[in-house]
Amino acid sequence: MLVFFSSIDTFKLWLWFDLQAVPSGEQRELLEAVVTSWFTVGRLGGFNAQNMQVHYRGSRGSSNFPYDSEQCDSSMEAMFHDLGDLEFRGSMARCWINMGTADEFALDVLINALNTFSLENMGIKKLTVGGDNNVWPIPKDNQKTQDPLLQGMDMRDY
């Protein structure tokens, strides 16, 4: 899977998937599950670089590690805000996300997951993060949300 980065606005970030073939219904559901799972972790604050205690423990290992819950509680919230529907057009797919205050290492996590998904489930030729697409222009007036708290709201107001 090739990965390209275009212009990035993490509050209105488009993800563009160039698939190896037109996906079946099951493949669409699987790709949607990957993206939705990633969003759920982000919505719950999972991509917070201010609290990566286990990661920074490094070579010292994590056995008997004294995790600092106060550091976890006191770090700035880093949460995704919204995810649009995953849309398909032939062998292409796209969705937009508002990454909110989450850290950009969330994109690394998504790319890692999609790379494995591409190898084991459905071939993804190319993932483009950000930017626009000349073949499939970004809609200017009707972004829909998957967030149940915002269902039915006009996203142009946000």
Provide structural commentary.
The protein is an alpha+beta fold. The protein has a single domain (2-47, 77-149), classed as 2-Layer Sandwich (Alpha-Beta Plaits). The chain is 29% helix and 18% strand. It contains four helices and six strands. It has helices spanning 25-43, 53-57, 69-74, 105-120, and strands spanning 2-5, 13-19, 82-83, 87-89, 92-98, 124-129. Strands 1, 2, 3, 4, 5 and 6 form a six-stranded mixed β-sheet that branches. Strand 4 and strand 5 form a beta hairpin. Helix 1 (25-43) packs antiparallel against helix 4 (105-120). The model has no long low-confidence stretch (mean pLDDT 84). InterPro entries: DUF3531 (IPR021920). Residues 138-158 are annotated as: Disordered.
Write a concise synopsis of the structure shown.
InterPro entries: DUF3531. The chain has helices spanning 25-43, 53-57, 69-74, 105-120; strands at residues 2-5, 13-19, 82-83, 87-89, 92-98, 124-129.
Query: How big a fraction of the residues is strand?
Result: 15-25%
Radius of gyration, rounded?
Answer: 17 Å
CATH class membership: Alpha Beta
Number of strands: 6
Largest sheet: 6 strands, mixed
Work out the helicity level: 25-40%
Give the number of helices: 4
User: Element order, helices and strands?
Assistant: EEHHHEEEHE
Mean pLDDT over the residues: 84
What are the segments in which pLDDT stays under 50 over at least 5 consecutive residues?
A: none
Estimated structural class = alpha+beta
Going by CATH, the architecture would be 2-Layer Sandwich
- What is the global morphology? globular
Distance between the termini: 33 Å
- At the fold tier of CATH, the topology name is Alpha-Beta Plaits
Tell me the domain tally. Answer: 1
Pfam family, one: DUF3531
Region (Disordered): 138-158
InterPro entries: DUF3531
